Amino acid sequence: MKHLIILGDGMADHPIGRLGGKTLLEYTRPKYMNMLAKSGRTGKLITVPEGYSPGSEVANTAILGYDLDEVYEGRGPLEAASIGYDMQEDDLAMRCNIITIKDGEIKNHHGGHLTTEESDTLIAFLNEKLGNNRIRFITGIQYRHLLVIKGGNKNIVCAPPHDHPEEPWRPLLVKADNNDTAKTDENKNADSAQPLQRLTAVETAELINRLILKSQELLESHPFNQGRKEKANSIWPWSGGYRPRMKTLQKMYPQIKNGSVISAVDLIRGIGKYAGLKNIVVDGMTGQADTNYEGKAQAAINALKEGDDFVFLHIEASDEAGHDGDLELKLRTIEDLDSRIIKPIYDEIMKWKGENVCIAILPDHPTPVEIRTHMNEPVPFLIWHKNIMPDNVHQYNEQSCVDGSYGLLRLSEFMHEFMAIDK
To answer: In the chain, N or C terminus with fewer CB closer than 10 Å?
Structure first.
């Protein structure tokens, strides 16, 4: 039995008055998701452990069966792995968005939907102006980049920019975690060639805030921003951590011999790398609604055909539409996931003789369009393969899956159930 997880990031939502009190999944009635729900088994899943924020780094890691208390180090280290930066023991790696600030507020978390090429110019500029032996900016994908601070302290409180649209940015600057008890760094010379010791949380927060303020001065006057309606005029570092210590999925689940991850998002690629999965790059995948759906579906099919027994196929588009509060776009991303990802994969698998594939479909968390941020709520999931005994649920959505035969699963229970299906 081969296993395929199709994850629609942020796909779950709340009932919406404009849709007659239905969620987006209820309103769109996705043909293939509903068909697989009717012929498969369903349930709800808690993807975020108590005490954690409902970020994609948390939820996707938990979905893959990891104990967050043992492995969690934030987004930064995961994205460092995807970018190819080899973290050292004294590194603090942080996700570093380029965002738009206007009239004292965070207007968006993406700087006006920057391309990677556009961002690379700005990141190289910031690294030239602000980088030194302690500080380094590294280009990622689109608006998602990396800030590495040698000797930085992870015991800080950061505000994810996508959680605070239209809010004043100054109250959201980085703060020290009150529980931090680290000793003060003895070497405070950022240009010193001597080995750097770990900063305190207070010093780290102050350093990051200085970088944010300085970046605003530099980016506001950069030629790229002249005449732009949505200026890419500030960095926003968050979700930092040290080098993770994760077992591979092969060690956790003997059924997995070879596996792959397909995603446009550095974070997901980084999780995949630490999990022992190959990263499959698909031309034209963007992390937005214009991504190459057909190419990603074909890549998953090819990976399963060519020897992989586990594939994690991640689609970011619904999450981005949710953060933008764009109802029509998010509806379309769900329809595209159904018709341009699930349909071709299902149609192909049904042709295979003697090879069974177990498919799971789920989001990692809700990103409701009327709230525009992640919510810590159980998500609906379905599991299907050719020989599965179906339950009595006939539609895939937030409401109907409550009655599914899996009931309410927690965290790693999903992966254990999924991987236990091997015939």
So the answer is: C
Helix (H) or strand (E) holding 202: helix 201-220
> Which candidate, 290, 370, 303, places its Cα nearest to that of 336?
290
- For 413, the token pair is 């229970």
Rounded Cα distance, 260 and 137, in Å: 28
Rounded CA gap, 323 and 86, in Å?
A: 31
**With bands split at pLDDT 50, 70 and 90, how would you rate the model's confidence at 384?**
very high
DSSP secondary structure code for residue 104 in this structure: T
Token output for 26: 């209820």
Whole-number pLDDT of residue 355: 86
Whether residue 299 contacts residue 281, with contact meaning beta carbons closer than 8 Å, is answered with no
pLDDT tens digits along 151-194: 999 999 999 999 999 999 999 999 999 765 444 443 443 444 45
46 and 63 Cβ atoms separated by less than 8 Å? no
Phi, psi of 135 (to 5 degrees): -115, 135
Give which of 33, 51, 29 is closest to 42, Cα–Cα. Answer: 33
Tokens of 120: 């690379």
The mean predicted confidence, pLDDT, of the chain is 93
The DSSP call for residue 4 is: E
**Environment class of 405 (CB within 10 Å of its CB; exposed 0-12, middle 13-18, buried 19+):** middle
Residue 209 pLDDT greater than 60, yes or no? yes
Q: Output the CA angle 17-163-201, nearest 5 degrees.
A: 160
Helices (H), 275-354: 293-305, 317-323, 327-336, 343-349
Q: 17-38, pLDDT tens digit by residue?
A: 999 999 999 999 999 999 999 9
CA 113 to chain CA centroid, nearest Å: 16
Bridge partners of 278, per DSSP, are 260
pTM (2 d.p.):
0.80
Using alpha carbons, list the distances in angstroms from residue 381 to 43, 128, 190, 319, 408. Answer: 6, 46, 49, 17, 10
